[in-house]
Model the fold of this input.
Amino acid sequence: MTPDFIFGVTPGDVVYDIETYPNVFTMKALHHTTRKRWTFEVSERRNDLDLIVQFMNTLAANQCRMVGFNNIGFDYPVIHMIHQTGGAWITVENIYEKAMGIIQGNRAVHTVWESGGVVHAVWESDWAVPQVDLFKIHHFDNMARSTSLKALEFAMRMPRIEDLPFPVGKPLTPDQIDPLLEYNEYDVDATDDFLTETKEMLAFREELAKDYGDDAFINYNDTKIGKQIFIRRLEGHTPGSCYQRINGRREPVQTIRQNIKLNDVILPMVKFTHPETNRILDYFQQQVITETKGVFKNVSCSINGFQLDFGTGGLHGSISNTTVTSDDEWIIEDWDVASYYPNLAIQNNLRPDHLGDLFCHIYADMYEQRKQHAKGSTQNAALKLGLNGSYGDSNNQYSPLFDPQFTMAITINGQLLLCMLIEALMVDQSVKMVQVNTDGLTIKYPREIQPWVHLVTKWWEGVTRLTLEVAEYKSMYIRDVNNYIAVYTDGSIKRKGAYEHNKEWHQDPGALIVPIAAEKVLVNGEDVREVICSHPDPYDFMLRGKAPGGSHLRWGTIRQQKLCRYYISTDGDYLEKVMPPKGPPGEYKRANSLTDDYYNSVMAEIGNGVWDERIHTKNKSVYETRVTGLHTVNTVQMANNMNEMTFGDIDYEWYIAETVKLTSPIMSNVI
Done:
């Protein structure tokens, strides 16, 4: 290996990924712009530790960034350890031990290069080379959005989806190292493709870094960016308003509540005339809550037959399985409150108690500043994130914005004020409520009463000092409040839930042909069979199957990788998820509601393999491997390598049936 291998580096982003086994360590890297590649290996046949150190030093000297997927949490701490020691005294076993310590969260591991226990996280200030983590930028470190690189390979429609070729923790033979390197390189290619998909998000963060003079924004998700912008504005105005030092530690300033009397937060302007809405108001006025999540269940009312459901997340209601159309006599209008929650706080001086008027002052200033910047600009987007993120963080127990009473003041008043508008509009029996969803509503009504409807909305704006924005729909196709298609009068389309076919990265984009076809059937009146059978893109027929930890997928009798791509086929086999037993295989199942001490004492008395009515289920069932079919009556064909497929056996009937489920109930009811 010549020095040019290392020193042929130009500035730019270098994508990388590592693989660790007990006797093999590999690292692959790819320059995103020049497409130059590097391979590093530590094994019995080769030791590139010194080259890894030189490589990282050269990247730093050339102002490069290292880009990875969960690299801040895993890959970088491993190579940082190598860099710290200059590659000296490190063995492949040490590297593997470090990697396993990170995976297992084992802070008790001791090594030759660290004393007092391993601390795996590396502070940004200690990075030898700046890191960009696509995993963090997309907020995949949030459990609800957790997404693997394999899932992204499916979503990005890469030709192959490949899992680790060898079990984790298995020492490799010399002839297994090259297949590992090939897999390592394919993961780098997948990460590089995802970097391309992330370019706009990264450019936005780079602009923020310039504006705020801080590179920390680079690896922030959108929500964190919003919160940090708002908190920085507060601290910049009044230092110490958000954080204080307690016993040498930086702690958030907060307002802690033992309970919240909702009557104390309901605004005086909230007034109703309808018995149902007055019943809801009376209910909320009597509530004293100690939690802010999931405390309101089955709280609803009905106006002119339309049900409104209340909760801590917002107001919801919708007709279901219905096509809604407009014509020369009827109009469909969608009314949204502009920046509802921020403006509700600004106009009514609602704020976390410990921040006082400063909170609303900064809130209002940011809102006015945002209006001065064009939509789509970095400044507008940053301020929007700051406005929206601050409300959500008021219910975050780790945030300096924490005050759950402020959270409830916003969400309860938001629902009640919207109810005032609904009640006023439905005074006219010809106004049909179509949907209500947190910050707005959709109605259908006779065009001849449009002046009156707009007078009602103006009245509501005057009472609340909030602004309504209106859009007109040509038609809507509604399964329920979370799943529908809305067609604007200009022909553009809004899709929600099951009808979305432009999925976000953390969503499952399987069988996209179904929502694509459903839209063509509903909106354009096309024939479902013709649409599906003539569709040219095989990727739109693909589904994604994955097995959780400890489980695996099985196609017929063949064990599959953890995440698979497949399609419903007329000439395939059954795909099943095989899950390990919940207890010792073959042992009698433990009865419910037993303490561990009691169960263990009886087991010590009777021994293994003996059924006892005191601690075992009455039907004498035993723990065994659980098998669940992903498609119990349909066979599938695996398609992890699209280059090997002909797709002549696609079971079009299954896709047609799934599309009919999304269309037939809606088409049968038109208003």
Notes: The CA atoms of residues 164 and 183 lie 7 Å apart.
